[in-house]
Amino acid sequence: MLDIGSKNWAYVRGEYEFFRQYTPNLFLDGVEIDAYRLYSNFYSRYEAAKFYIKGLSGVNYYADDLLNMRGEYDYITWFLPFVTPYPLLKWGLPKKYFMPERLLIHAYQLLKKEMLIINQGDEETQIQKSMLDKLAIPYEFLGEIKSSALEFQYPRNGFLVIKNRED
C-alpha cells in the first residue's frame, strides 16, 4: 500500500490497522516531497513520521518525490493532492512541483487494484474529475466524505480509482 503526500504521517496507525485486516503481509509506504519542513518545535515532518511508524512492521516513510517511486501497490491513498498551484505555493513549494496530470499518471502506473483520492472543495473536486476523465482513468465518484472525528472547513469529496475495471 502507498500513501502519497504523507506529511508527518500522524494517521499511519489508523491506515495500518485498517489495511492489515484486508491485506496479508502488509507493506505500507508513505512518500512526502516536503519531509524536511520544520515545525515550530524544530522537529521535521520526517522526524515526526519516524516516531509515528515506530513498531509497525513493513512500514516505510520516504522523503522523496512520487515520481521516484517504483514498483506496484495494491492500494494507494492520496489525500488532498495539489490540483491547483495555489495550495502548493502556499505550502512554500516551488512551482516546478506543480504537475498534477503527470503525478496522477505515475500513481496510476504504480496501482494494481484501487486508489482513494480525497479532494477539498468543489473547485478541486471538479478539476480532479476533469483530469480523470481526460486521462481515461476509470473511477467511481464517492461524493462527500464526512468524518465523525474531524470537522472540515471545506467539504471533502472522494474518488475511487479502480485499475483494470471491467465496465
Terminal-residue CA separation: 25 Å
What are the segments in which pLDDT stays under 50 over at least 5 consecutive residues? none
Averaged pLDDT: 93
Give the ordered list of helices and strands.
EHEHEEHHEHEE
Tertiary shape: globular
In DSSP terms (H or I, runs of 4 or more residues), the helix count works out at: 5
* Percent in helix: 25-40%
Q: Structural class, please?
A: alpha/beta
Beta strand count: 7
Largest sheet: 7 strands, mixed
Radius of gyration: 16 Å
For the largest sheet, list the strands in their spatial order.
3-2-1-4-5-7-6
Quote the beta fraction: 25-35%
| Total tally of structural domains | 2
Q: Overview of this structure, please?
A:
The protein is of the alpha/beta class and 167 residues long. The chain folds into two domains: 1-70, no CATH class; 86-167, no CATH class. The protein contains five helices and seven strands, in the order E-H-E-H-E-E-H-H-E-H-E-E. It has helices at 12-22, 45-52, 85-90, 100-110, 121-134; strands at residues 2-4, 28-32, 59-63, 73-79, 111-120, 139-145, 156-162. The protein has a seven-stranded mixed sheet with strand order 3-2-1-4-5-7-6. The longest helix is centred in the last third of the chain and has 14 residues, at 121-134.
Q: Characteristics of this structure?
A:
26% strand; seven-stranded mixed beta sheet; alpha/beta; 7 strands; 167 residues; 5 helices
Would you kindly provide a brief summary of this structure?
The chain is of the alpha/beta class and about 170 residues long. It has five helices and seven strands.
